[in-house]
Specification:
By secondary structure, the chain is α+β, with helices and mostly antiparallel strands. The protein folds into two domains: 160 residues, Aminotransferase class 4, branched-chain amino acid transferase, N-terminal domain (D-amino Acid Aminotransferase, Chain A, domain 1, 2-Layer Sandwich); 165 residues, D-amino Acid Aminotransferase, Chain A, domain 2, CATH 3.20.10. It has seven helices and 20 strands. The strands form two sheets. Strands 1, 2, 3, 4, 5, 6, 7, 8, 9 and 20 form a ten-stranded mixed beta sheet that branches. Strands 10-11-12-13-17-18 form a six-stranded mixed β-barrel, surrounded by four helices. It is globular. It starts with 11 loop residues before the first strand and ends with a strand. The structure holds pyridoxal-5'-phosphate. Pyridoxal-5'-phosphate (PLP) binds next to strand 13 and helix 5. Pyridoxal-5'-phosphate binds next to strand 13 and helix 5.
Length: 358
């Protein structure tokens, strides 16, 4: 890890004079539309991170020449906070997000954000906005740390100024129903040597058009394949992907093209502990199609912070459609319950994954 330069200045906190919380209908939330009263901000200039601040949530004023608008030097993270029955607030493996944003930063040639500042900002922000984290199985606070290039100059080169921010949005867990997917055979979200392993904003921008084409044909998501041959299954939309063939779960190893998801690695560990066999290896399109034909493909699901597990009910490959069977005691159900119970402190956390907000 590169040196993380910072000026040693204390966190500056400015509280809002008027909370918006009473205007929010917490039983009727659209994902990611409403934000809490405060945000965390820290600017990078002259080679160092400047005074970190928590301030009332506010729009940014940025000159149109800011580099983020032209060259897409932008990265982000996504994590969730939960409130238990005793009003304690918990995060799930936030160390993983903290490390990952700095890996993404390195790939996009942005400065690493110091670990102590990340946790200090996160803790203080969640303490200030604690009333926005609601108790109950369906409620959580989605947390979005991100970094953008703010140098004012349209020359195509790396920025010398950045802004790190954390914003938070109250969310309800959503059940999208079973989704239908199409295996990619033309477009790709990432390629060898590219930025697919980074949580870079541009990866998402590039995936919207192929996803729209899939939507127009009645599929909610694209299952991305390797960009060279389209023979290996890699990710489902913006989630990692798992396949259950008979009683074995298959998922691709992380690579330069595949994002190292916190949910994915937690599922692998959870399953190994539960005695569910997981094989981490390249997964061929042909073997999944073959398994589906023989009735041995029992489940397919995406894995990510937003939904934990998102069940895939049908897929299409080269114009041929396949339906997955309805299985009793599905791995998807066992995993989703197992992981969310740990996240929400309903069960013992033998893995040491939960982090209590101080
Ligand atoms: C964020 C993301 C995931 C899921 O990662 P989690 O850490 O589990 O939320 C998977 N794939 C892509 C492309 C992502 O951007």
């Amino acid at each position: 890890m590169r040196k993380q330069y910072r000026l040693t200045m204390a966190l500056h906190i400015e509280k809002t004079t008027k909370s918006k919380i009473s205007e929010v209908d917490f039983n009727n939330l659209t994902f990611g539309k409403i934000f809490t009263d405060h945000m965390f901000e820290c600017d990078y200039e002259n080679g160092a991170w400047q005074t970190p601040q928590i301030v009332p949530y506010h729009p940014l004023i940025l000159d149109p020449s800011a580099k983020v608008f032209h060259y897409g030097q932008a990265i982000f993270e996504g994590m969730k906070a939960y409130k238990d029955d005793n009003d304690a607030i918990w995060l799930f493996r936030p160390d993983q997000n903290q490390e990952r944003i700095n890996k993404s930063a390195e790939r996009l040639d942005m400065p690493a954000f110091p670990k102590d500042l990340f946790f200090e900002g996160l803790n203080e922000l969640l303490k200030l906005d604690k009333d926005w984290v609601k108790k109950g199985q369906d409620n959580a606070l989605y947390i979005r740390p991100f970094i953008i290039a703010t140098e004012l100059c349209v020359s195509a080169s790396t920025s010398n100024k950045y802004k790190f921010m954390i914003i938070c949005s109250p969310v309800q867990s959503y059940y999208t129903g079973e989704v239908k997917v199409v295996f990619a055979d033309k477009y790709s979200r990432s390629a060898n040597g590219g930025v697919g392993a980074a949580k870079a904003a541009g990866n998402y921008a590039g995936s919207f058009y192929p996803t729209k084409l899939a939507n127009q044909q009645g599929f909610q998501q694209v299952v991305w394949t390797d960009s060279c041959t389209h023979e290996f299954l890699e990710e489902a939309g913006v989630m990692n992907v798992f396949f259950r063939v008979n009683d074995t779960l298959l998922t691709a190893p992380v690579s330069e093209r595949i994002l190292d998801g916190v949910t994915r690695k937690s599922i692998i560990q959870f399953c190994e502990d539960k005695g569910i066999k997981v094989e981490v290896r390249p997964v061929k399109v042909t073997e999944i199609v073959e398994a589906a034909r023989k009735g041995e493909l029992l489940e397919m699901f995406g894995a990510g912070t937003a939904a934990v597990v998102s069940v895939i009910g049908a897929f299409s490959n080269k114009g041929e459609n396949f339906e997955l069977p309805k299985v009793e005691n599905s791995f998807a159900t066992i995993i989703k319950k197992g992981i969310t119970d740990i996240q929400r402190k309903k069960t013992e956390d033998k893995f040491g994954w939960t982090y209590r907000v101080k």
